Every structure is written in C-alpha cells, then in structure tokens.
Amino acid sequence: MTARVHLFDTTLRDGAQTTGVDFSLDDKRAVAAMLDKLGIDYVEGGYPGANPLDTAFFAEKPTRNAKFAAFGMTKRAGRSAANDPGIAALLEAKADAIVFVAKSSDYHVRVALEISLEENLIGIRESVEAAKAAGREVMLDCEHFFDGYKANPDYALACARTAYEAGARWVVLCDTNGGSLPDEVGAIVAEVTRTVPGEYLGIHAHDDCGCAVANSLAAVESGVRQIQGTLNGLGERCGNANLVTLIGALKLKDKYRERFSLGVDENQLGELSHVSRALDEMLNRAPNVHAPFVGSSAFATKAGIHASAVLKDPRTYEHVAPEATGNTRKVLISDQGGKSNLVAELERIGVTLGRDDPRLGRVLEEVKDKEAQGYAFEGADASFFLLAKRIMREVPEYFAVERFKVSVERRYNANGELVTFSEATVKVKVGEEELISAAEGNGPVNALDTALRKDLGRYQSLIEGLRLVDYKVRIFQGGTDAVTRVLIESADETGARWTTVGVSPNIIDASFQALVDSITYKLVRAGATA
Amino acid sequence: MTARVHLFDTTLRDGAQTTGVDFSLDDKRAVAAMLDKLGIDYVEGGYPGANPLDTAFFAEKPTRNAKFAAFGMTKRAGRSAANDPGIAALLEAKADAIVFVAKSSDYHVRVALEISLEENLIGIRESVEAAKAAGREVMLDCEHFFDGYKANPDYALACARTAYEAGARWVVLCDTNGGSLPDEVGAIVAEVTRTVPGEYLGIHAHDDCGCAVANSLAAVESGVRQIQGTLNGLGERCGNANLVTLIGALKLKDKYRERFSLGVDENQLGELSHVSRALDEMLNRAPNVHAPFVGSSAFATKAGIHASAVLKDPRTYEHVAPEATGNTRKVLISDQGGKSNLVAELERIGVTLGRDDPRLGRVLEEVKDKEAQGYAFEGADASFFLLAKRIMREVPEYFAVERFKVSVERRYNANGELVTFSEATVKVKVGEEELISAAEGNGPVNALDTALRKDLGRYQSLIEGLRLVDYKVRIFQGGTDAVTRVLIESADETGARWTTVGVSPNIIDASFQALVDSITYKLVRAGATA
To answer: Is residue A416 domain-shared with residue A328, that is, in the same domain?
Structure first.
C-alpha cells in the first residue's frame, strides 16, 4: 500500500527565469506535451496576464492528462478579489488549477510588501476563495516559508492554515532562497503537518546549498505529497529541485518505491533520459553529462578496476539499472555492451542488423570514430540511419558536390546604406550531368541550402517540398581545437521531419554536411534510384 | 567551542576519472598549489605506481601546509605487506599520508576479489601497520561501505574496526556507487561511531542520487570529522561530493559555522569562486553558472518582482552574501526590469548614471529595444558597457568598417582532395587612412576576425594581444524569422576577459558586430583617443 506523491512541474514558469533561457510559444507547447506524456501531474505553464506570451499560452489547455496550472499573485492589498486584474487574468486562463504565491514570512510582508500581517492573510483567504468559487483547483505557494517559520513560526503557520481553511487543495512550502538544509526542512515540515495534513502539503525547493533534491525527499519523508521542481533542475540562481533526479530516485530506490507511487509508470520512466535531453536540445543548452540517472556519463566507468567488475556483475557498481530510465551503460574498454545497444538503436530507426552480422562491427567502429570527432547521433537519427545504410551499401550515389562557394559581403548600397548580402554557388554532378546553381539568402547557410536544392537534375521533383525547419549550432573543444556541430531539422511536403548532423571546425562545412545528408535521406526514403 | 572538520580533496585522484578530464603533471602541481592556498587539509595527489605521471608527481611534495596523500590498494592476498609492490610504491612516494582502499562489503570481497572475508581483514591490518611503521599518517577508504553495511553490518564494521585498531588516523566510509540517501547515511554513521569514534571517521560520497552534499552533511551531523570531495564535484559518473559547495555551506550557514570550523579562513573563503573558475579554465570545461555559492548566476535574479526586492534589501532573497566567496550579485536586465535594476547593473560594470539622469532613460529604451530584437546583455557586459557609453557619447569613432567580404569555398585541390578554404577581406577607415586587409582562417568567422585585426593603423599596437577565446551561437525564433545571437569572449595580453554580443539573421553579420564591439571595448579601456 503506497502513498501517492504528485509531481508538479514548473519548468515553464520558474524554469523560465533561468539565465539565458527563453521559451517561445511553440517551445512551451512542446514542453507541456512532453511533460503530459511523461506522466507529470501538474504543468505550471506560466503567469498569464504578466506577459503576452503566457497569456496566449493559456488561451487553450495544452495537456490531456496533466492538470494545467496558472501562476499569479494573491490580490493586491486594498482591492477586492473581484476587482483585482491579476486574479481576473488567472480566471480567464484555460487552467484547471490556479497557483497563488503569497509571502509567508512576516519580514517580507512588512519590508517587501509594506502591508500589515493581517492584510496579507486576508489577501490569501479571499484569493483562494475567489478561485475556488470559480471552480478551479487552488494552490498556495507560501513564499519564504522556511525562513519565515524560523523567524516567526506562528505567522508562517497562519498563512498556511488560512489557505487550507479557505479551501486550497495544496499548500506548498517554498524554500525560496534555497538556504534551508535537509534536517531543517524535515523537522519544520513535520511540525507543519500538525496544522495542515501532509496530503495537502507540497514542497518547492531551490538548489542554493546543493540540497534541493535532498530537501524535497526530506519533506516527503515528513509527510508532503506534492513535489515541485523543474526538468534538469532549471531555474534562476542555482535552479529548482531537479524533477528528473527525483523521479529516478522515487521510482528506482527501494527505500521509496516500497512506500510511494507516482503518476509516472515504468514505460514513461524509460523515456526519462530522452525527455531530459530533448529539453536541452530545445534550449540549445549543453546537457549535463553527469546528471543523476539520465546523464550520458551517469553510468560511464573509466577505471580499469571498476570496468571489469561492472562487466562481471553490474550490480557491483551500479546502484540502479541504466535502462530503467532509458539510459545506457558506457564501459569504455569493451564493445560488448556496445553491440547490444547498437542493435536496439538501429532497430528503433528501421535498420535491421543481426548481432553477428560483420557489418554491425563496422557500424560500431564508424560511430565511435565519428563520436570521437565530435559527432553526436543522439537526436540526428537520419544521419545515423545513413551511416549504417552506407556501410550496408544501400545508399546510391545520387549526386556529388564538386564545388561550392559561399560569400557574405557587407558594403554600402546605392542609397548609401550599409547592407549585408549572402550568396552561394554550388556545382553538382548528377549522373553524367554537371549542374551549377547560384542563390542568395538571408545568411550564408540559407544561401548554400537554397543553391544546393535549386537544381538536382532528375531528382529535383523529389526534393521540391523539402525545407529547412530548424538549425542548431554547438561549438565545443574537440581536443585542442574548437569544433562546430550543426544539427539541421528538415521537413517535406508530407509533414515528415528528420534531423541530420555535420561536424567541422568550419561552420559552413559542418552545415554543408548536414544539408547533404538531409537531401540524401529524403531521396533514400523516396526510394530514388541512382 | 567548535569541532574541527578536515577537508580532503581528491580532485587529482577520483576527479581524474571524470569523462574527458586529463591532468598533466603541470596541471596537478597547479591544482595542488591552489588547494594548499585555499586551506584544504589533505590533497590526494593520485595513485603512485599505477601510472608514470602519478609516480612522477609524488617525487616531491607540492604543498606547504596541506598534507599530501597517496592512494593505493591494500596488499594483495597471498603476499606479505613487505613484498607487495603496490605498497612499496606508496612508501616511496613523498607523501605525508597514505590512503588504502579496501572492500568493506562481503559481496565484493567474495565476487569481485574472490578471496575470503578473513583474508581481506588481514590485508587491511597488515597494510595499515606497514604504512604506520614507516611513519606515515594512514587512512583506510572503506569501499562500498554503506551497501556493505546494509547487507552485512558486522562485516562492514569489522573492516572499519580492523583499520582503526591497526592505527589508522582516519577510517573513511565510502558510498562508492552513490546510491545511498541522507537519512540512511546519517543513521549508519551514527551506528559506526559506536565502534570507531567520529573524530577518526571520514565520509566519501558520490552524486548518483543528487545527494552527495546532503550525504556528507548528514555524516558530519552524525559525527564524522573528515569530508572527502572534489572541486566542482568532478568525478566519474555523476561526480564526487562538491567540496566547493560544502565549504560554502560549512562556512556560511549559521547552522554549521556555530558548531564546526574548517582549515579555510574568511580570506581563503573569499577566493572560492576564483578557485572554482580557475579549475574549469584549466580543464577547458564550461563552468556551471548555476553552481551553489560560486556560479556566475548563483546570485542572479531576472524577475522584476524579485529584483526590486533584492535591491531594497538583499537579505530578502539571498541566503548568504555573494561577496563572502568572491562572487557578485547580478540583477539581470530583462524587459521586466526597470530603472533601479539598470542603475545597479551599470554601477557593477563601471558606468555611473544617476536615476534622474535623462540619459538613463535612453539607455533603458535602447536595452529594451535591442532585447526585443534578440540581444541578451546578460553575460555580454562589454557590449552593455558600450551601449551605455555610446549614449553618453563617450565612445570615440576609432574606425569604420566600410566593407567586408567573407567566403568559404569547397573544391578539389591539386591532389584531387576536396578541401575547404575560408577567406575574408576587410576595408576599414581609421581617421583619414583607408586600410584593406585579407586573411584566411579555419572558418569564416575566424577569417573575418583575423582580417579585422590585421591592420587598424594607429591602433594596431593596442590590439596586438587581443584574441578570441570563446564563441557561442544561439539560433531562435525572433518573431517569424530565425535570429542568430553570437557571444564572443575575448582576452588580451593582461589576462583580462570580456564578452560581446551580436544579433542578426545572418550569422556572419552577428559575429561581425560582436567582433567590432570587442575591439572597440579594448580601445576604450586602453584609453585610446580618436
């Protein structure tokens, strides 16, 4: 008999405060869909009314199973809840749940808000009542709860109790500045459960002491049944509690799974690594290879001593099985594990090669070789597909690019304005035919892409509907020199999408590789013959 | 009356197992010196005898105050300690302390080592005695201690007790697979202190559950007096306990500093941010901007609501003062921020504009305007500085780029190989002089950068030492079209570094803006006149 712990994701609200992170409307919809699919209970989409993008995001509920939550402030002092524009915006939002944030520290009420302690409580009560009356599930985020409790426990509890008595489904205790430590959190939460039952309590931790995950677990041990966090621990300053780590721990550590259950099932858990990486891809953030459970190095052993023990019996060094979260073991001295992984990965993208097929070994070698150069096939399925198919000699030589030239020129035009021109010329050989095309673009890659697809002779009709949909660049140190990795997502007239990769110190060269792969992939899928 | 907690750094031994990390001999000496200066008690330098570099490193003690520790295995079964080459290598090393690692889990002794439980204990005792007889301080790392204790507490304790009774100064309890959780660690350590006194115990945690720091703190609460970890949480898989975070917590959280003291004093603490960044620089690793206490974003607030509260009174949102560890507060310019933010941020980068100065309003407008186009000034202080100074008319027109042309060409060379060439031509006007330069590069941006800095007439000597150190690209939707944002980090001969930004749909154009800003910034800082 396990207790149900609810997961509340605030990647799109608190996570949006991260330095250098911006979510477009499309990004928000994609993330909400991913969270929904993962089995998250609540998706906090943002702060409708505070900015136009969030208001637009709340025009329509983007999740099927997960509850969609809107964040906002309790009513301003001196106004009624009915006359508060912030609350009005929240009620207009197509949200199942409304999350109010209120100060629960007397210091903050007096110094930051400059209102009386009583007015703050009234604000909490009337806001919660208003939202409840409008049929929403209501939550109160008690901001600065732990500092507030340490300074004035009665007032902090009064805030929590007021929300609970006003009908809030959840009262969330927030360690807003991330300065609390696990045993403090455990002890304080245990105290709070004497006023508000654990089944109504949530925890919202930050990582300023490196203890957000531990604080969240301590709170659950003391009775809370909702955990707030973000994917990959996104968030301002040091980030929010990492929900990915918490899902891994709660689902896989005996200590927890014997007593708690989540909305995430085993299959969804198997997608955890993918979700974590997809978010980093979307935000063009370098993934944390050391992330617990899902990092690409989370199960990588380098040391000879460890490696042989791991191969003898993985339980000797792995606290959980990597496959449970869709991750893989990396043992850098042997390719035993490598082959099984590869067969599975190839199967996934539609290439069948048996374990004993000699070509499998060559594919593995080629992959390792390319990865050492900086290629990453994770998220570049079409290039991975072509790599394998080329080794299987199943990719015809449709065309050869004999030469290309790309130039970007900035100069004064006839009107005396400084303008930038981008131009590309490409010479291809299709069968016996030599074709040369030129194109302009809003940038060098756009010009090259257009020129490359302008005239491919007899294949032209097959690539008419092809277009570049997304372009990502990562520059990193591949040894002593900087290496550029380009990922290109393409789409065609059927709506199909695929991603290809290119690597070079030269960004144009890297882009070129990815473009050629993209066209080749389309021709292979279209069944074109050479 | 505080209890002394000893810090044991294993960056150069366990940290060296990190994916993609290699320390040269010079690197090891530099890190050891940094740790010594920081006030660390023990520096574990490596595994002499296991590889030539470590053996060479132990030819001479590299620290003045910190104890220098050598790591190795207990004697092999069937040999005497006197005849064990591993122990011989350890005794040859110029180390103050010797750290033996031994299995303390019966499962590992039987399955991984394939020896009897008794033989393992003999190995521990005889190794510790041998090193003690040779005048060294001796430690035993009890590998897999927590899993071992959960499965067979008597045996795990027997290992610990054997080392203690043989004269070990420290018995270190290792959570080798990182699978233990804080309350388990706390409870088990408390039990162990009934066999080995806390003053003789150490903790060695890993971050596989995101709880290494919390586990270390829990162990200290239960009585251990040595913490093992690495700078920046380096280490294989998910890393070791982050000593930087632990130093911050133990020195700055009241909960700890009232009861514990370290070898690190307040001045040394003020160097913590620098040490953390210096290590990342050395290893060419992207720093974790979100790292607790020392990350460049650890005290960065974006939201308008938070920002105005922070400025009113930093204690409202900061759990500790950033300056204590040599870090700074950052109130990020965002389109939610207002004048108060701006005045503070400008002050931080050395620009003084009063709140009522009309130019401040123009700067704010320009920032918001540029941010709407896709510029982000967080992390691009030099461009932000120039933006303000331009409005204040304090940036002379040093040079004007009349024209540039960048081309990338891929074609067959004389040897029939397909190669890629990148070339740039830049025409600048410096005063009355028109200068035209050409350069090649490994990519278009490299070529443009080189050409731009090849001949700037009378300013040439001022920019001789200038070089491009890092280049980051982000492409995102700025409205309906893709926009490219480029961040360039430059350095000069004095070691100063600064970052500039450029935005355009054209990546070359965006890079160009950032390059021009970088040169201009250098000239302004050098006090050049037009």
So the answer is: no
**SS3 state of residue B226:** strand
Question: Testing the interface with A: which of B19, B104, B375 to mutate, by most A Cβ within 10 A?
Answer: B19
Does residue A294 fall inside a structural domain?
A: no
Q: Are residues A324 and A383 in the same domain?
A: yes
In this structure, chain A runs to a length of 530
User: A with B: how many residue pairs have Cβ under 8 Å apart?
Assistant: 296
Query: For residue range B449-487, what is the model confidence (pLDDT) as tens digits?
Result: 999 999 999 999 999 999 888 888 877 664 446 788 898
**CATH at residue B156:** 3.20.20.70
Return d(Cα B507, Cα B486) in angstroms, integer: 8
Are B257 and B311 found together in one domain? no
> Based on the domain organization, do B25 and B171 belong to the same domain?
yes
Query: By the 8 A CB rule, do B304 and B336 touch?
Result: yes
Q: Is the dihedral of CA A154, A155, A158, A160 positive or negative?
A: negative
The CA–CA distances, whole Å, from B292 to A238, A307, B244, B299 equal: 6, 32, 8, 9
| Distance between CA atoms of residues B399 and B456, nearest Å | 8
A37: left (phi over 0), alpha (psi -120 to 50) or beta: alpha
Q: Do A213 and B217 touch (CB under 8 A)?
A: no
Q: What is the ipTM of this complex?
A: 0.79
User: Residue A473: what pLDDT?
Assistant: 82
Top residue of B18, B486, B508, B513 to mutate, by most chain A CBs within 10 Å, is B508
Question: What average pLDDT does the segment B61-76 reach?
Answer: 97
Chain A interface includes B359 (CB < 8 A): no
Q: What's the rounded Cα separation, in Å, for the pair B29 and B35?
A: 10
Confidence (pLDDT) at A326 = 84
Q: Is pLDDT at A304 greater than 50 in this prediction?
A: no
Alpha-carbon Rg for chain A, nearest whole angstrom, is 27
> pLDDT value at position A309?
60
Of B217, B309, B379, nearest to A112 by CB-CB distance is B309
Examine the domain organization and report whether B219 and B99 are in the same domain.
Answer: yes
Q: Are residues A163 and A79 in the same domain?
A: yes
Buried b (16+ CB within 10 A) or exposed e, B298-330: bbbbbbbebbbbbbeeeebbbbbebebbbbebb
Within 461-500 of B, beta carbons closer than 8 Å to A belong to: 471-477, 481-482, 484
Name the residue of chain A whose CA is nearest to B232's CA. A210
Q: For residue A338, what pLDDT is reported?
A: 62
Nearest to A272 by CA among A35, A23, A516: A35
- Residues 29-88 (B) with a CB less than 8 A from some CB of A: none
* Domain that includes residue B116, residue range: 3-264
Suggest the residue from A19, A147, A251 to mutate for an interface test with chain B (most B CBs closer than 10 A).
A19
pLDDT in tens, B137-157: 999 999 999 999 999 999 999
Domain count, chain A: 3
- Flag whether pLDDT at A300 surpasses 80: no
Contact (CB<8Å) A237/B299: yes
